């Protein structure tokens, strides 16, 4: 009888094949790559409910299927098990305490890996092989630029003395990468840079050899380091201003503006601006010839942004008693008055800086200088001062109002150039405006 049924099933293909019992086979799980048992068929299983047997298919999301699945899992509440079997236990289903432990473990592991990498790269900086040192410098430069978390790690690992020593190297790639790395570190690690012996001397060496042995990119990055250090910490300005070699080298970049790239000139101007914010540094700058160099930029260099930045430094240097004679030698007051003439088409930022420079010059020069300034602004410059008063920024308006009072007398409020609603604000700060600041190196 059995053979007859097999014969009829083989003879008639429409008959369903004989159902086989469910078997468990062992295969490699594609997610965890471990030997995991699973069912190869969906043969119904028996389940006793209400004192009778019912068929329960072994399909997902059914009690019997979930029961078998939960029994097959090897559960351990340790964080390592969650890390190795994250596909079985999603993070959102883990308890909150374990999630916190997991997150902290991952962060510590990530930071420890960064520390090991930085220590390895710093150790390569003392290698005798030049390609090895350059490769380590390139990687430190990229890490300090793209990952701010690595900057304190690099500073703590002792890399700053090696970077400063590399600035004396005759290899231009080494100089460029070391200076760019110092620039990236100066964004957040100012105190380690200033406290490390020899960093300012190394920067002065690079800037002072502009056009000879120093790389142009290294000179630009070194000037940007000075500006970055002085941009937010007032205590560093007298320290950097005492480094006369740095001040003289930055001014020398302005003298060679024809052969210097625009970015190098702008970074040198920003560094000089930060140095001039300390009043005692201005006399040193005037002594080294910063006034002729600045007015030469204003008259001969028409590149975008350079005139604005040069007039910002001029406004700072004008607030010095020694600057009156230097301004008189180069006809500085007349040049500033020409910038205020509406016919020249100067930008509002340039006119605000010119107003600030003339005001500081009158304040520090006395009555004789005030008479000279009145003579030069009488021909066209008054309209420019009034334009700054009406359309300038808050500081520009207050300074233009004060300058008009000094030039025209106390009755200037009734003059056609004045506006009675503007208030005069006398402040000790001689700040002038700069454009956008770049805080890290760019390839």
TrEMBL record:
SMART domains reported for this sequence: ARM
Compositionally skewed regions (Basic and acidic residues) per UniProt: 1-11
Alphabetized UniProt keyword annotations: Repeat, Ubl conjugation pathway
Chain positions covered by the region annotation Disordered: 1-82, 411-443
Ranges for domain U-box: 118-408
A family per Pfam: ARM_PUB
Segments of skewed composition (Polar residues): 23-39, 58-67, 424-436
Protein name per UniProt: U-box domain-containing protein
